[in-house]
Amino acid sequence: MELIFEVRDAEGGFAARAIGEESIATHGQTWEELKANVLEAVRNYFGPGMTPRTVQLHYVRDELVLI
């Protein structure tokens, strides 16, 4: 099983929310802090022996382009 997080820019860093498991969300000021917080959130949500084998961080950036 793979769990995918949608990552977006947030005030002061990054915010991540699991796709399909909306109750798993976290944030971090740096990319490294975000990764550590995502892993901790996944472990806490699923518990021992139930965690997904991989976690993917999908970074989404919204940008408006004027025409």
Describe the structure.
This is 2-oxoisovalerate dehydrogenase, E1 component beta subunit. InterPro entries: TTHA1013/TTHA0281-like. The chain starts with a strand and ends in a 7-residue tail after the last strand. It has one domain (about 1-60). By secondary structure, the chain is α+β, with helices and mostly antiparallel strands. It has a 4-stranded mixed sheet, with helices on one face. The protein is elongated, with a radius of gyration of 13 Å. The longest helix is centred in the middle third of the chain and has 16 residues, at about 30-45. The chain is about 25% helix and about 40% strand. A hairpin with a 6-residue loop joins strand 2 (about 15-20) and strand 3 (about 25-30).
Can you give keywords for this protein?
67 residues, four-stranded mixed sheet, 39% strand
